[in-house]
Amino acid sequence: MKTKFQETLSRANEVIFRYPMVLAVALLAAVGAICIVETELEQVTTYIKFTICACLGISLMFALKMVSQRIGKELLLHLCGVAFLIGFYCILPDKKNNFTEVYAYIIAITALLSHLLVSFIPFLQKDRELRFWQYNKNLFVNFFLTVVFTGVLTGGVELAILAVDKLFDFHFHHRIYTDTFFVLAIFGSCFIFLLFSDKGLNNLEKDGTYPVVLKFFTQFILIPLLLIYVAILYFYSFKILINWQLPRGWVSYLVLAYSIVGTLALLLVHPLKEENAKSWVKIFSKAFYYTIVPLIILLFTAIFTRILEYGYTEPRYFVFLLALWLLSIVIYFIFNRKATIKFIPVSLFLFGAFALIFPYFNAFSVAKRSQKTELMNILNQNQLISAGKINFNKKVTDTIRNEIADKFEFLAERKQGEFLSSLLNKKDQNELSDNIEKGTFYSINYTIQNKFSDVNITVKNRPYELNRIVLVPEKQIIGIENYQYLLSFHRYSSDPQKLNEDQFELIDQLTDKSSLRLRLNSKEEVDFGPKIIHLFEENKNKNGTVKVPDIAMESDLGKYHVKLIFSEITKEKYSDNELASIYYENVYILIRLK
Q1: Can you give the pTM of this predicted structure?
Q2: Residue 383 in contact with residue 394, Cβ under 8 Å?
């Protein structure tokens, strides 16, 4: 027992000294995730940015460690990695509302690129194909083992804490469970993965027997399912030809799914195709790329159908780029007799980097130019431009109105305020700039919809767009006057807050019971719900963003006088038969002793 314990400590010590940077960013990621959960103020954005960068750093630092084991220069490589993470942190926005879908794409693609880097960066030299396969196979196996071990460890520790809490009446704070989860799920999983990776590159790329489980899964489950899947897609293609109709948009994702999973299957069975006993695997390996050719034609047809009708957006751009990547894969493996499987991750990395950073032709530049063109086409085709500005008094259909509003929101999120302002009068320009500065892009959509005074309703059952009102105070500055304390409650947090020896709790039942109760020490309470409902009643014939003098209400509560102030509050109703949903993001409570 003592020997085993010493052996475990020795291996753990080796991992710590062999992968210090990987473990450091993993620990920082876990700490950042804990801070996100436990922080309710504006600084949560800083923790979000920090955690995102730390999570990206896990795969990046591992990739740099692998290549340093091949070429040396570990310190220089890690310094470059740190510099990249600092730069990426600076790119991310400082305000939570500015975290638009654009940054989601940037983060997702960067994460994909960092993982692809792990897969090929130590193998850029020629004649290492079998080692390249063994390396990635071992990473693949280690990943699944890590998921299993981490799941069991996390679940076991959480249950142990729960048992101690309930059996011995410790009354742990509920955050101990979330903190434990983040530490084990992020830092713990990283540590376990590195334990499996042992000494790194030399251990991962060494020859080993083909895993029996992986062989069975690939040969008898994955490949047969792919054959069934491709048969369905071919039948759908025949249906299109017979009916002579354009393919549905979602068929693009089905073709991509088949192609990508099929490529993964080929990578998994790569060593088996040389075995005579597995001739059907060899046949599949040769035939797979030919089966994709008709589907790529179907894929491009579906993509261009959407692009020609609605223009480029980032998702359509990425689908189009993936189609080009698949086409390059097919051409490479069909016509190159000395094809290497390293081409797959390397080419995908290059396509992804192109989409992210290549000037003028990257995803974001193309999407912005395309949607600007689409917006101007809609305005000109419907003769809505008068003296260079949009004429909101001209009659339009609700479909056209909604398309214009959607494109305003899309372009506003992508910092095209100057272009959009050129289409509006001075008053509307100020309102647009105000919404962009605050990051309330959804308000831009509804504001533009509401500016059209003569709308022909052609589409029924779209109450979401017609029954939504956002109340916003004219002044966003909070005057504390003669109040002594300030508490802040967030929409998604129901944790009580302490003030001296007193405890304040906000119970939100606005949607269900039109009630918003502020409770003191679980005894005294005051309900602000009726005042909020009354405020909406005063504006019942309006929708979209509506500015009101203020959204504040006050009352006595025990020995205190309290005042609730909302930054904004929203009411949505999907249909006349459904209950209205009322919610807010933040509410500030000013408190003074009576």
Answers
A1: 0.78
A2: yes
